[in-house]
Amino acid sequence: MPKLTVQNLSGLEVKVAEGQTLLEALLQGQGTDWMHACGGKGRCTTCRIVVLQGMEHTAPLTAAELRYREKGRLQDNERLTCQCTLPSGEVTGKVPEQTKLPHMSYSS
Predict the structure, then answer these.
(1) pTM for the complete prediction?
(2) How many domains does the chain have?
(3) Strand-strand pairing, 48-53 and 12-15
(4) Which of 11, 36, 42, 76 could hold 64 in an S-S bridge, CB 3.0 to 4.6 Å?
């Protein structure tokens, strides 16, 4: 089963089911709090993750992600967790500084 590792959440490992978004896997599978101001609808960029390794294992960019890339609000090494699925392999990422939640403990 594909796996997401969140480096700055103490190496949190999350299994990602087929067709499941990274956000769904984080919230439902792990019960991890993750910023998502628009409710996971691809209308903002608060749920983004910085991908450190394994971008090649992610599904192609969605229309929402392409729109934010064109506007410069989503960098080449970032994905929206509410849009991104993981068909295979492993991805390592981190929560960006701008979207860290104040009640969560982040590692370096």
Answers:
(1) 0.94
(2) 1
(3) unpaired
(4) 42
